[in-house]
Amino acid sequence: MAGHERQDEQFVPYVDRDIASHRVKAVGFRVYNDAELQKLCVKQLHDSDTFDCLGHATSGGLYDLELGTFIF
Asked: What Cα–Cα distance (Å) separates residue 72 from each residue in 40, 58, 61, 63, 69?
């Protein structure tokens, strides 16, 4: 295990056997044209309320979760 040795001891990674693991079977990439990119990148905001009564972001509001995550 070249590169994983610490002085005279060998590095052994911790593996929790109770945690399910998955392998990636495929990864795909593509190039979008201008119209597709415009459609993916535009979100109409139509709700003037930013948060509901429970403090959750409203759909169609300024903090709509479809716009991505926000750190407060």
From this structure: 25, 16, 16, 11, 10
